[in-house]
Amino acid sequence: MLFGAHVSIAGGLFNAPINAAAIGCEVFQMFSRSPRGGWVAPLDKNIAKQFKENCEKHNQKEWYIHAPYFINFASTNPRIKHGSVAVLREELERGTMLGAKYIMTHLGSYKDVGQKEGYKQLIEGLEKVMKGYKGTTQFLIEISAGAGNILGDTFEEVGAALHHKKIEKYNIGVCYDTQHAFASGYDCRTPKAFDETLKKFDKEIGLDRLKMFHCNDSKPELGSHRDRHEHIGKGQIGLAGFKTILGDKRLKDKNFIAETEDDEIVQDLKLLKKIRDK
Question: Where is the Xylose isomerase-like TIM barrel domain (predicted)?
Protein backbone atom coordinates (compact mmCIF):
# COMPACT_ATOMS: atom_id res chain seq x y z
CA MET A 1 0.00 0.00 0.00
CA LEU A 2 1.75 3.12 -1.29
CA PHE A 3 0.77 6.80 -1.15
CA GLY A 4 1.22 9.74 -3.46
CA ALA A 5 -0.41 12.84 -4.90
CA HIS A 6 -1.33 14.54 -8.14
CA VAL A 7 1.74 16.58 -9.17
CA SER A 8 2.59 19.29 -11.70
CA ILE A 9 4.36 18.72 -15.02
CA ALA A 10 5.30 22.42 -15.38
CA GLY A 11 8.51 22.75 -17.38
CA GLY A 12 8.20 19.26 -18.85
CA LEU A 13 6.88 15.78 -18.10
CA PHE A 14 10.28 14.74 -16.71
CA ASN A 15 9.76 17.17 -13.79
CA ALA A 16 6.77 15.21 -12.43
CA PRO A 17 8.80 12.54 -10.55
CA ILE A 18 11.05 15.25 -9.11
CA ASN A 19 7.99 17.16 -7.87
CA ALA A 20 6.53 13.92 -6.48
CA ALA A 21 9.65 13.04 -4.47
CA ALA A 22 9.84 16.58 -3.07
CA ILE A 23 6.52 16.18 -1.22
CA GLY A 24 7.04 12.59 -0.06
CA CYS A 25 5.28 10.57 -2.76
CA GLU A 26 5.93 6.86 -3.19
CA VAL A 27 3.71 6.83 -6.30
CA PHE A 28 2.27 9.79 -8.20
CA GLN A 29 -0.38 10.99 -10.64
CA MET A 30 -0.17 13.68 -13.31
CA PHE A 31 -1.76 15.09 -16.44
CA SER A 32 0.30 14.30 -19.53
CA ARG A 33 -1.21 17.39 -21.25
CA SER A 34 -3.22 20.45 -20.31
CA PRO A 35 -6.39 19.20 -18.58
CA ARG A 36 -8.46 21.85 -20.33
CA GLY A 37 -7.45 21.10 -23.92
CA GLY A 38 -5.39 22.99 -26.48
CA TRP A 39 -1.96 22.30 -27.89
CA VAL A 40 -0.26 19.10 -26.73
CA ALA A 41 3.52 18.90 -26.40
CA PRO A 42 4.75 15.97 -28.53
CA LEU A 43 6.13 12.95 -26.74
CA ASP A 44 9.23 11.22 -28.11
CA LYS A 45 11.56 8.44 -26.94
CA ASN A 46 14.09 10.86 -25.44
CA ILE A 47 11.47 12.59 -23.25
CA ALA A 48 10.04 9.22 -22.19
CA LYS A 49 13.56 7.95 -21.35
CA GLN A 50 14.35 11.03 -19.25
CA PHE A 51 10.98 10.73 -17.49
CA LYS A 52 11.49 7.07 -16.57
CA GLU A 53 15.07 7.69 -15.46
CA ASN A 54 13.81 10.40 -13.09
CA CYS A 55 11.13 8.05 -11.74
CA GLU A 56 13.82 5.51 -10.89
CA LYS A 57 16.22 8.10 -9.51
CA HIS A 58 13.55 9.52 -7.20
CA ASN A 59 12.26 6.12 -6.03
CA GLN A 60 8.78 6.32 -7.54
CA LYS A 61 7.24 2.85 -7.69
CA GLU A 62 4.27 3.55 -9.99
CA TRP A 63 2.75 6.51 -11.81
CA TYR A 64 -0.65 7.24 -13.27
CA ILE A 65 -2.19 9.64 -15.78
CA HIS A 66 -5.45 11.52 -15.24
CA ALA A 67 -7.31 12.23 -18.47
CA PRO A 68 -8.32 15.83 -19.35
CA TYR A 69 -11.46 17.32 -17.81
CA PHE A 70 -13.34 17.82 -21.08
CA ILE A 71 -13.95 14.10 -21.71
CA ASN A 72 -17.66 13.44 -22.33
CA PHE A 73 -18.79 10.31 -24.15
CA ALA A 74 -22.43 11.48 -24.01
CA SER A 75 -21.93 14.95 -25.50
CA THR A 76 -24.19 16.20 -28.29
CA ASN A 77 -21.23 18.16 -29.67
CA PRO A 78 -19.53 15.90 -32.25
CA ARG A 79 -16.15 17.58 -31.63
CA ILE A 80 -16.28 16.74 -27.91
CA LYS A 81 -17.74 13.25 -28.40
CA HIS A 82 -15.22 12.16 -31.06
CA GLY A 83 -12.43 14.16 -29.43
CA SER A 84 -12.97 12.30 -26.16
CA VAL A 85 -12.39 8.97 -27.90
CA ALA A 86 -9.33 10.21 -29.80
CA VAL A 87 -7.72 11.85 -26.76
CA LEU A 88 -8.24 8.83 -24.49
CA ARG A 89 -6.70 6.48 -27.04
CA GLU A 90 -3.79 8.88 -27.45
CA GLU A 91 -3.37 9.08 -23.67
CA LEU A 92 -3.23 5.28 -23.48
CA GLU A 93 -0.46 5.27 -26.09
CA ARG A 94 1.40 8.10 -24.31
CA GLY A 95 0.98 6.27 -21.03
CA THR A 96 2.54 3.16 -22.55
CA MET A 97 5.56 5.20 -23.72
CA LEU A 98 5.94 6.67 -20.22
CA GLY A 99 5.50 3.36 -18.42
CA ALA A 100 2.33 4.57 -16.63
CA LYS A 101 0.44 1.80 -14.84
CA TYR A 102 -3.02 3.33 -15.33
CA ILE A 103 -4.91 6.16 -16.98
CA MET A 104 -8.23 7.12 -15.39
CA THR A 105 -11.09 9.26 -16.67
CA HIS A 106 -14.53 10.55 -15.80
CA LEU A 107 -17.16 9.55 -18.35
CA GLY A 108 -19.11 12.77 -18.79
CA SER A 109 -22.75 13.81 -18.46
CA TYR A 110 -25.87 12.67 -20.29
CA LYS A 111 -27.85 15.85 -19.45
CA ASP A 112 -28.37 16.78 -23.13
CA VAL A 113 -29.23 13.32 -24.50
CA GLY A 114 -30.93 11.47 -21.65
CA GLN A 115 -29.71 8.46 -19.70
CA LYS A 116 -30.58 5.77 -22.28
CA GLU A 117 -28.88 7.53 -25.21
CA GLY A 118 -25.99 8.60 -22.98
CA TYR A 119 -25.33 5.00 -21.97
CA LYS A 120 -25.48 3.92 -25.65
CA GLN A 121 -22.92 6.58 -26.59
CA LEU A 122 -20.74 5.52 -23.66
CA ILE A 123 -20.58 1.90 -24.84
CA GLU A 124 -19.86 2.98 -28.43
CA GLY A 125 -17.13 5.35 -27.23
CA LEU A 126 -15.44 2.86 -24.90
CA GLU A 127 -15.34 0.27 -27.68
CA LYS A 128 -13.68 2.77 -30.05
CA VAL A 129 -11.10 3.74 -27.41
CA MET A 130 -10.10 0.15 -26.69
CA LYS A 131 -10.43 -1.59 -30.09
CA GLY A 132 -7.00 -2.73 -31.29
CA TYR A 133 -5.15 -1.25 -28.30
CA LYS A 134 -2.00 -3.30 -27.55
CA GLY A 135 -0.30 -1.06 -24.96
CA THR A 136 0.63 -1.72 -21.34
CA THR A 137 -1.20 1.15 -19.59
CA GLN A 138 -4.56 -0.03 -18.24
CA PHE A 139 -7.69 2.06 -18.73
CA LEU A 140 -9.72 2.89 -15.59
CA ILE A 141 -13.11 4.48 -15.03
CA GLU A 142 -13.20 6.82 -12.04
CA ILE A 143 -16.25 6.77 -9.76
CA SER A 144 -18.07 10.13 -10.07
CA ALA A 145 -19.72 12.31 -7.42
CA GLY A 146 -23.00 12.39 -9.31
CA ALA A 147 -23.74 16.08 -9.84
CA GLY A 148 -25.76 16.95 -12.95
CA ASN A 149 -26.78 13.69 -14.67
CA ILE A 150 -23.25 12.34 -14.45
CA LEU A 151 -22.28 9.01 -15.98
CA GLY A 152 -20.62 6.59 -13.58
CA ASP A 153 -21.80 7.77 -10.16
CA THR A 154 -23.26 4.40 -9.12
CA PHE A 155 -21.67 0.95 -8.93
CA GLU A 156 -24.59 -0.36 -10.97
CA GLU A 157 -23.93 2.06 -13.84
CA VAL A 158 -20.18 1.45 -13.90
CA GLY A 159 -20.71 -2.31 -13.64
CA ALA A 160 -23.25 -2.31 -16.48
CA ALA A 161 -20.70 -0.62 -18.75
CA LEU A 162 -17.74 -2.82 -17.75
CA HIS A 163 -19.73 -6.05 -18.11
CA HIS A 164 -21.43 -5.08 -21.37
CA LYS A 165 -20.91 -7.81 -23.98
CA LYS A 166 -18.96 -5.40 -26.22
CA ILE A 167 -16.72 -4.09 -23.42
CA GLU A 168 -16.06 -6.93 -20.95
CA LYS A 169 -13.20 -8.42 -22.98
CA TYR A 170 -11.15 -5.22 -22.68
CA ASN A 171 -10.55 -5.63 -18.92
CA ILE A 172 -11.21 -2.00 -18.00
CA GLY A 173 -10.66 -1.32 -14.28
CA VAL A 174 -11.93 1.17 -11.70
CA CYS A 175 -10.36 4.04 -9.77
CA TYR A 176 -12.29 4.48 -6.52
CA ASP A 177 -12.37 8.11 -5.37
CA THR A 178 -13.25 8.15 -1.66
CA GLN A 179 -14.86 11.61 -1.83
CA HIS A 180 -16.83 10.95 -5.01
CA ALA A 181 -18.16 7.61 -3.76
CA PHE A 182 -19.07 9.17 -0.40
CA ALA A 183 -20.91 12.00 -2.19
CA SER A 184 -22.74 9.36 -4.23
CA GLY A 185 -23.99 7.71 -1.05
CA TYR A 186 -21.42 4.97 -0.39
CA ASP A 187 -20.41 5.11 3.28
CA CYS A 188 -16.89 4.29 4.48
CA ARG A 189 -16.84 5.79 7.98
CA THR A 190 -17.12 2.55 9.97
CA PRO A 191 -15.92 -1.02 9.32
CA LYS A 192 -19.53 -2.22 9.04
CA ALA A 193 -20.55 0.52 6.58
CA PHE A 194 -17.44 0.09 4.46
CA ASP A 195 -17.84 -3.69 4.41
CA GLU A 196 -21.34 -3.20 2.99
CA THR A 197 -19.97 -0.73 0.42
CA LEU A 198 -17.24 -3.11 -0.76
CA LYS A 199 -19.73 -5.99 -0.95
CA LYS A 200 -21.97 -3.83 -3.19
CA PHE A 201 -18.93 -2.97 -5.31
CA ASP A 202 -18.02 -6.65 -5.60
CA LYS A 203 -21.56 -7.60 -6.59
CA GLU A 204 -21.99 -4.93 -9.27
CA ILE A 205 -18.43 -4.52 -10.57
CA GLY A 206 -16.10 -7.10 -8.99
CA LEU A 207 -13.29 -6.37 -6.53
CA ASP A 208 -10.83 -7.72 -9.12
CA ARG A 209 -11.61 -4.58 -11.16
CA LEU A 210 -10.67 -2.24 -8.28
CA LYS A 211 -7.13 -1.12 -9.17
CA MET A 212 -6.36 2.06 -7.18
CA PHE A 213 -7.84 4.85 -5.04
CA HIS A 214 -8.10 8.59 -5.05
CA CYS A 215 -7.81 9.38 -1.35
CA ASN A 216 -9.77 12.53 -0.46
CA ASP A 217 -11.87 13.60 2.49
CA SER A 218 -15.23 15.22 1.74
CA LYS A 219 -16.44 18.74 2.48
CA PRO A 220 -20.10 17.86 1.76
CA GLU A 221 -22.10 15.22 3.61
CA LEU A 222 -22.86 11.62 2.59
CA GLY A 223 -25.03 11.45 -0.54
CA SER A 224 -24.65 15.17 -1.35
CA HIS A 225 -23.67 14.53 -5.01
CA ARG A 226 -21.18 17.39 -4.72
CA ASP A 227 -17.54 17.07 -5.80
CA ARG A 228 -15.54 18.97 -3.15
CA HIS A 229 -12.38 17.52 -1.67
CA GLU A 230 -11.10 18.18 1.86
CA HIS A 231 -7.79 17.41 3.60
CA ILE A 232 -7.50 13.98 5.22
CA GLY A 233 -9.35 13.79 8.54
CA LYS A 234 -10.83 17.29 8.24
CA GLY A 235 -14.02 16.44 6.36
CA GLN A 236 -17.16 14.34 6.67
CA ILE A 237 -15.33 11.03 6.18
CA GLY A 238 -12.97 11.88 9.03
CA LEU A 239 -9.91 10.19 10.47
CA ALA A 240 -11.90 7.13 11.58
CA GLY A 241 -13.08 6.65 8.00
CA PHE A 242 -9.55 6.61 6.61
CA LYS A 243 -8.42 4.24 9.36
CA THR A 244 -11.27 1.97 8.28
CA ILE A 245 -10.35 2.15 4.58
CA LEU A 246 -6.60 1.67 5.03
CA GLY A 247 -7.13 -1.08 7.60
CA ASP A 248 -9.30 -3.22 5.32
CA LYS A 249 -7.28 -6.32 4.40
CA ARG A 250 -8.96 -6.55 0.99
CA LEU A 251 -7.13 -3.35 0.03
CA LYS A 252 -3.66 -4.17 1.35
CA ASP A 253 -2.08 -4.10 -2.13
CA LYS A 254 -3.91 -0.99 -3.43
CA ASN A 255 -2.19 2.37 -3.89
CA PHE A 256 -3.70 5.74 -2.96
CA ILE A 257 -3.38 9.17 -4.60
CA ALA A 258 -4.37 12.28 -2.62
CA GLU A 259 -5.92 15.07 -4.68
CA THR A 260 -6.09 17.67 -1.91
CA GLU A 261 -4.89 21.29 -2.04
CA ASP A 262 -1.14 21.96 -2.13
CA ASP A 263 -1.19 23.91 1.15
CA GLU A 264 -1.40 20.73 3.25
CA ILE A 265 -0.59 17.90 0.84
CA VAL A 266 2.67 17.05 2.65
CA GLN A 267 0.78 16.70 5.95
CA ASP A 268 -1.91 14.60 4.24
CA LEU A 269 0.68 12.14 2.94
CA LYS A 270 2.44 11.96 6.31
CA LEU A 271 -0.88 11.24 8.02
CA LEU A 272 -1.81 8.50 5.54
CA LYS A 273 1.59 6.82 5.97
CA LYS A 274 1.25 7.04 9.75
CA ILE A 275 -2.14 5.28 9.63
CA ARG A 276 -0.71 2.61 7.32
CA ASP A 277 2.36 2.00 9.44
CA LYS A 278 0.27 1.50 12.58
Answer: 20-274
Task: Compute the distance between CA of residue 213 and CA of residue 102 in angstroms, rounded to an integer.
Answer: 11
Q: What is the pTM of this model?
A: 0.96
Average pLDDT over residues 72-91: 95
Give me the CATH code for the 3-277 domain, please. 3.20.20.150
Residue 231 annotated in ligand binding = no
Q: Which residues are catalytic?
A: 36, 66, 69, 106, 142, 177, 180, 214, 227, 229, 259
User: Where exactly are the structural domains of the chain?
Assistant: 3-277
44 is in an annotated binding site: no
User: Phi and psi for 47 in degrees, rounded to 5?
Assistant: -65, -45
- The answer to whether the CB of 108 falls within 8 A of the CB of 75 is yes
pLDDT, the chain, mean: 96
| pLDDT for the residue numbered 57 | 98
